[in-house]
Amino acid sequence: MSIRNDITNNIVEILSDTTDPKPIFVTRDPIVLEDLSRQQFPAVVVTTGDEVRNEFTLQGANGQRQSVLNVICQCYVTGSQIDVQRNDICERVEEALEADRGRDGKALDTKLVNVAVDYEIDKRFGLITLTFEIHYIYTRGAA
Fold it and tell me: Which of 103, 111, 114, 113 is nearest to 137 (CA)?
């Protein structure tokens, strides 16, 4: 499996094991909000985003590269006090991922770089998107 997938799967695993407010439904697959029951919220969709790669060593085909991978956590809530719920899940996701910034030995660092609230979403739901930069090194051909 690729390091990108290992890192992303680690995030899904960590978020699935967190506590209050515990994300009930955590997935890497797209979701249809209307298909989820109220008991499946908060829901978090974890996806890999853009990545910047640079040469780390000059050893040709076997050289190492340094990468900065963006991982996006779309956190959905529903019910009353949407703004409070968005802030609570934002804080919980950030704290959970800060606990192991090395992603179980696969990364050098993990840091939250952007938080965005979606005000255009259906008013029955709330969405806050967290973007994390994950720094890691890999051997060419192994990422």
Answer: 103
Whole-prediction pTM value?
0.91
In angstroms and rounded to an integer, the radius of gyration of the C-alpha atoms of the chain is 16
Give the DSSP H/E element, type plus range, for residue 66. strand 64-78
Q: What is the CATH number of the domain that holds 107?
A: 3.30.70.1700
The confidence score (pLDDT) of residue 108 equals 96
25-29, 30-34, 59-63, 108-112: lowest mean pLDDT where? 59-63
DSSP assigned state of 58: -
- Please check the confidence at residue 62 and state whether its pLDDT lies above 90: no
- Which are the contacts of 13, defined by CB distance < 8 A and separation ≥ 6? none
Per the structure, the complete domain to which residue 25 belongs is given by 3-139
DSSP helix/strand/coil, 100: coil
Judged by DSSP in three states, 79 sits in: coil
